[in-house]
Each structure stands twice: as structure tokens, then as C-alpha cells.
Amino acid sequence: MKNLRLKSARAALDLSQDDLAKACGVSRQTISAIEKGDYNPTINLCIAICKTLNKTLDELFWEE
Amino acid sequence: MALQLSVGLLFGIIVGLVIAFVLLKMANTNHRMKTEYDERQQLIRGKGYMYGFYTILFYEVIMMILDLAEVNFPIEHYTIHFVGVIFGCTVLCIYCLWNDVYWGLNNNKKKYSVIIVVCIILNLLPIIGQAANGTLVQDGKIGLTTLNIFVIIMMAAIGVAAVIKKLVKRDSSEEE
Fold it and tell me: Are the C-beta atoms of residues B151 and B86 closer than 8 Å to each other?
């Protein structure tokens, strides 16, 4: 399932996938894979993404 | 003669490893020898190593059966196992390329590309030299140059895979 919340949170901060990837210490393809729902990140990476985007885990990764 | 060849090979491998160590340190952006990968890359590369291992396993079994059947190859016997290693590496590289995990986080692609071109030239030189001298095939068999030939084949296969991947790449662009 696509993670559109992550994509919109990133876009809201005017960050590219590459910017977010560098801030989290991963490759751009990994951020792309998470946004497309092709890869389930570990909790450590989820936290790193949340901290970079100033969001909580629930806001970005909790599925209703 | 066999001892001389073994010592020569061992010396060559040691020199090769030292050169690889220096080149890797130069080619990585943080000047570390070890290439760094993120968690997704490590996961996929792990599968790549698995497929590479199975390839070598399968190859060795096939070669053992063919050896028992006394099938002769136009290459020297001592190069057969190394060819299997090259096949395994090829599978690993192509799998990684196909899944966007070939390049690590600290790789400088331009410097690596230069190293790859230098490697291709270094492997082509003995082939061209021996072919020009007419010593490539002796007693109906290719000697140590077999390794250079298969390394070139591996690099060509990786190159073709990289081009195909680039052509069919749709899902990793920024827009998606």
C-alpha cells in the first residue's frame, strides 16, 4: 500500500526524496520504495523519517 | 613449474588485493574501504549473495558430473573453479543492479566507473597480447587467460544488465 502521508509530509517541507534520504542516512531508492509501499522500513528508519519530517509515527505509518 | 605458477598466482592475488584496497579507499566518498548500505540494500544484497551461492553450488555440481563423464573443456582444469566464482559474482551483481542496490551510500560513481574501465583494459591486454602472438590457445586449451576472458564476459553481462535496467526503469523516478 502506498504511503501517501509520507509523500505529502515530505512535499510539505519542500524536500526531495534525495534530501530526505540523505537526512535519514539511506538511499533515495529506499525512500521511493517506502512511499510506493514496496518496502516496510524498520522502526529505527521510521523514527529517523519522523524526526526529519517533524511528524509522529502514528501520523506517518499507522494504518487505520 | 606448478609450484612456480601457484606462487605467482598467490603473489598476483596479494598485489591485486592491495591495489583494490587503495582504490576502494580512494573511490569511496568518506575514504573508507567498506561500502556502506542502508537496511533495504543489505536485505536485498543478502538475497543476491544467496543466489550467487546457489549459482556456484549448481555450477560445481554440473562440473563434477561433466568431469565424471570425462567431458573435456577448451580451458585448463585449474581455471574451472574460478569460472564458477565469476558466475556467482555475475549473478550477485546483476541481481543488485536490477534491484537498485548496486551502489552503496558512500560510493563515488564516477571514480568507480573509471576503475571499472581500467579493469576492463587490464583484462583485455593479456587477451589481445596472447591473441596477437598466437599463444592464446596452447595444446587446444586456453590457460590463465581464461580468467581474463570470463571477467570480460562478466563485465559485459553487467553492462548489458545496467543498460536494460536503465531502459525499463520506471518506478524509481522522483515523480512517482
Answer: yes
Q: Is B39 on the interface with A (CB under 8 A)?
A: yes
Tell whether B172 is within 8 A of chain A (Cβ).
yes
> How many distinct structural domains can be found in chain B?
1
Reported ipTM: 0.89
Spell out the domain ranges in chain A: 4-61
CB contact under 8 A, A27 and B105: yes
Indicate the residue of B41, B171, B174 with minimum beta-carbon distance to A27.
B41
What span, in angstroms and rounded, lies between the C-alpha atoms of A38 and A1? 8
B4 or A56, greater pLDDT? A56
pLDDT digits (tens, 9 = 90+) for B72-117: 888 888 788 889 999 999 999 999 999 989 999 988 888 888 888 8
Task: Please give the CATH number for the structural domain made up of A4-61.
Answer: 1.10.260.40
Q: Kindly state the average pLDDT of the residues B35-46.
A: 94
Q: How many CB atoms lie within 10 A of CB B131?
A: 12
Among the partner residues B40, B100, B174, nearest to A16 by beta-carbon distance: B174
Q: How far does B8 lie from chain A, in Å, by closest CA?
A: 41
